Description:
alpha+beta, Jelly Rolls, 9-stranded antiparallel β-sheet, 6 helices
Amino acid sequence: xxxxxxxxxxxxxxxxxxxxxxxxxxxxxxxxxxxxxxxxxxxxxxxxxxxxxxxxxxxxxxxxxxxxxxxxxxxxxxxxxxxxxxxxxxxxxxxxxxxxxxxxxxxxxxxxxxxxxxxxxxxxxxxxxxxxxxxxxxxxxxxxxxxxxxxxxxxxxxxxxxxxxxxxxxxxxxxxxxxxxxxxxxxxxxxxxxxxxxxxxxxxxxxxxxxxxxxxxxxxxxxxxxxxxxxxxxxxxxxxxxxxxxxxxxxxxxxxxxxxxxxxxxxxxxxxxxxxxxxxxxxxxxxxxxxxxxxxxxxxxxxxxxxxxxxxxxxxxxxxxxxxxxxxxxxxxxxxxxxxxxxxxxxxxxxxxxxxxxxxxxxxxxxxxxxxxxxxxxxxxxxxxxxxxxxxxxxxxxxxxxxxxxxxxxxxxxxxxxxxxxxxxxxxxxxxxxxxxxxxxxxxxxxxxxxxxxxxxxxxxxxxxxxxxxxxx
Length: 473
């Protein structure tokens, strides 16, 4: 990284890590492995004109920048970063590059380094709080620059000696936990034999682990699959490999001294979240309904909020348009239904990176109307039934008796039966089907019909009607 200016200094800081110094002015970086792309970082953010030239001429797709750090703990080489502004970030991203924020604050405890830095405490409790404080500072800094949660914020931890692992793990865990609380992804950069060794041990100690890990290897190999001491398969798709340190590249007549990294494509959260809707009963006798759904974000930044659209319609009325989208934090929606009302809902999710899912499938339910809402012909009588909806049924023992609605719109008709009787279902005087049995029995039509729904007995067998549900979807 760029705590020091010279590659030789960077190599010296690597402790016992094996870092091979690449040749300056090399022709160009190696082709990145499939599923990765190339990123540069430099001690100072280049001018926008330089970046635009490189965006057109170079093989890189991303740039790491050193975001502002509280003056009390700032260990960046260039503490001014004259070019780095919110407008610069916006323009660089508009030009097609991702921007990775790098934070260089406190470094390892003084007992584990001979260099002059702002130090992390060797007390684990204090170190954890220092990690949280750093995360809060970094998140605010990234926000001021317009750096969205699509990118993790990476802590640059330079190499250190053994003897401080407990404090360092506490610091890393505090950093990650606080970034997650603030809705950001966490990353940690460092050398294999110190930083990355301690980061790799976080899961085994039950401590919060960063979302991405950036390993300084200077290996010259633009790959991320094998990066010991990271176990193979760990942080899959969330790795970076700094394979070249301090090389000078020239594109479009403009030269920069840069570090080069291979970056897994999924380090950036460009994937929309998903919403899974529940299976709910198509009809209910209850006045209050609750619909809860599940949101997931494999991109890493996490679901920030949901948008909900609903539509509801009174008994037998024409179905209206969807409501305007309403933003909600929770993943449950409650509604109170009047008798005969149909209620539908659909949801979409937005993650903290700003990616928004498609609208989910809609789910609908309808509250029955009681049998007493229907108009009987002669030959029906009311009967008390403690197990029935509203404790009543309408009963007939004669053929050709009808129960009718007013004019309604319906595509599905649900009849609540008590007993073993059979009725024909008519719309107007046209038979559209037959229902029989016990409980809620649905008749699904090929299109929405408009007219009077009639339930007509087909024999002298006892028929007991408990309720009726109409649906239009």
